[in-house]
Design a protein that fits this description.
homodimer, 426 residues, 5-stranded mixed beta sheet, 12 helices
Chain lengths: 426, 426
């Protein structure tokens, strides 16, 4: 028992509370420089006047700060072609991220394959590589060797030396403390509690940041997708597991202590189905592909042959469902109902303006059929407001690797802009 | 079916995405002036140098801004007594909120009683009143008349005219859009969809803001309790319903569109117990007092007499449980297990550094007995980290009214400090 229970009595608040003179807070305001960079990066191209408007600061401040960011080599001026050139006046100039400022590698290490992309600082993909693997947890040395080989392959494909890479981002499924790069548990590792960022950094000879793979999908959307137009949205990923990422005010939110947003392991049934995390009743134990495969082998009396991939099994199950097999249909139907529970809980808690469903499994449209949406509507707070829009992005592992690259881009940006200079001096 | 489903194909991201030049965002940075005020307000008393340090801005900026805030009448300088007065040098000066800047009233309208407090701007309580009522949903006119009478009583008790009140905050259970003051559903109202803020403002002749009552408990903690020392925490309230409030970085988070954090209506069982919101499987349908009372009348074969209060029934149930009645114990035991599910889901999603359990029902210690914590530990991500501290604040309705007053204080502050002046000009 490690929980601490303290108890306050009935005296209540209301007295003039004089807190400690030195409050134990570590909040520092995000420097305006970083906010300016992020607004430009998020929008792709943005005129200075728009940056000033969106951040509520003066045009003079934005001019000063963008000059610094141009000097640091992070931003550049881009002349925007006019739709109808009147030939009069100066052509409009916008700010954009300088593509050749840095190169980064993002990789997703997963149960089935490892993927990597090499991006420039503006997010252009210069090379990508994928290596399939045996679906099983690895020891740390094997996983590090695989990431080392993947870096070699993707840099070779781009025709750049490893030394040209500024940073590496790595995504793994499971419970990850991103700030420290510590992996508490991951289905790709056969040990619990591993300092992946530190070990990978030593092995690769490059700065490495690590995050939960669902967070990386949210980061990919933030940098290259929905984040260009939205400040707040939720991403739910369905693959071998079920994950979630939340973007709040243009930033990825990882929970109060960095290991939150584990929607797949929220409990939707007391003493429910067994999850691969070892607990019972987790949402992903009803929705993820291993949950469907488990039911397929049971209900359809199939024998799961050693080495047979879950993908093949699920494709077969899907074909049976489409052909009208009642047991196969019931498996997808139940998974869809539980997905509705999960999505309704996301709405009831986060009230997002947009939900993005992401992952290869979204090809199984039973999961998000009209039935699922109808069920979800029955489970969402009855306010009379419409459900939030739900977009389905059926992108593959390359998207996840893009998210890992966005993580690397973030770390490069933060390292360049830190330590925060005084706002008032700008 | 109101959900919108859109589908993106397999082309994926990676192109240089040039977003729209004018992004449809409404983000403006929180003005530094407001941040300075909030840091001082949260800490009780704070020296200028500490404000500068915590916000990462220059001492000169803080001096300028605090002069403005003193001129606006919101802050004042307070001489801090030294523990050992050396008699040399100037005594240290800290900033504090000016108590007589404004008076506000906060009230909680609930199923059982209406409560109100009258506070000064520093949070000192000048008067409080409580009026018990028949536990039933009211029509809007009755509810407005009750709040009008309550304002009369609490201003009379404080010996101030109604015209001395700057703002009123009202908390009600249910689904509330705080920015607009619209109540989608509340157990205290017999209609759905009511513009409570507007109607109450007309009736009372004062500016009125409205919020969900659990959010108000979080606000009370933010202004007068845990918020003095913490930037981030979660509050879970258990009373007639089960609610949640989340404080992120010194601010109440209400979800992406303002009606989030409805933990009590997250679904923990497909086709589960009936909730008073009309849906099935809501967490509160297993934990809130009406859920326990429902089971008590069934399992113990008690007849629920008209007019008999839920409180009396629950006290009796609690006495039976303490005396060893197995059915009574099993009712609390199951409620405790479901509470563990709810708290574990809070941890798995929000990974908070602190959870505060609040509400009168916390007197029933079965709900948070060692069993509950042990169950919770089994349901929380197995990272090996300790559970977050769980504090039990068994305060009554007066705390909720304090939260409503904090809402009124927030609205006064924001009105005084808005529209945001340009950061660069400060």
């Amino acid at each position: 028992m490690t929980g601490m229970l303290t108890h306050s009595g009935d005296d209540g608040p209301g007295r003039r509370g004089c807190g400690p003179l030195i409050a134990p807070l570590s909040e520092t305001m995000r420097p305006l420089r970083q906010q300016v960079f992020e607004r430009v990066r998020a929008s792709g191209l943005m005129p200075r006047v728009q940056v000033a408007k969106e951040l509520g600061v003066s045009a003079a401040s934005v001019t000063t700060i963008t000059s610094e960011l141009i000097e640091l080599g992070l931003l550049e001026e881009v002349t925007v072609p006019r739709e109808t050139d009147t030939g009069r006046g100066r052509p409009p100039v916008a700010l954009g991220v300088r593509a050749d400022a840095h190169l980064v590698v993002g990789m997703k290490l997963s149960d089935r394959e490892h993927t990597a992309v090499l991006l420039d600082f503006a997010g252009n993909m210069l090379a990508s590589e994928a290596v399939s693997r045996e679906p099983a947890a690895s020891d740390p040395a094997t996983l590090l060797a695989a990431s080392d080989a993947l870096i070699d392959r993707v840099t070779a494909a781009a025709g750049v030396p490893r030394s040209a890479i500024s940073a590496v981002g790595i995504g793994v499924p499971g419970f990850v403390d991103s700030p420290s790069g510590h992996v508490y548990w991951s289905s790709v590792l056969n040990v619990r509690g591993f300092d992946l960022a530190r070990a990978a950094s030593q092995r690769l000879g490059l700065p490495v940041t690590v995050d939960n793979d669902a967070n990386l999908v949210a980061l990919a959307e933030l940098w290259f997708g929905a984040g260009r137009e939205r400040a707040d949205f939720a991403v739910v990923t369905i693959e071998h597991g079920l994950g979630m990422g939340l973007v709040l005010n243009h930033r990825l939110y990882r929970g109060g202590q960095g290991v939150g947003m584990e929607l797949g392991h929220t409990k939707v049934q007391l003493d429910g189905a067994l999850c691969r995390c070892g607990q019972r009743g987790c949402l992903e134990a009803y929705v993820a592909d291993y949950a469907l495969a488990r039911e397929a082998t049971t209900a359809l009396n199939w024998i799961y042959k050693d080495g047979q991939s879950v993908q093949i099994l699920l494709e077969s199950l899907y074909d049976h469902a489409k052909a009208g097999n009642p047991a196969a249909r019931s498996i997808f139907r139940r998974a869809g109902r539980y997905l509705a529970v999960g999505l309704a809980n996301v709405v009831n808690l986060f009230d997002p303006a947009l939900i993005i469903l992401s992952g290869e499994r979204m090809r199984y449209d039973y999961l998000y059929a009209a039935d699922t949406l109808a069920e979800m509507e029955n489970l969402v707070l009855a306010t009379g407001r419409p459900l939030p829009p739900i977009e389905v992005h059926a992108w593959g592992d390359m998207l996840w690797a893009h998210g890992a690259a966005a993580l690397a881009l973030s770390s490069v940006t933060e390292a360049t802009l830190a330590p925060p200079r005084e706002l008032a001096a700008q």
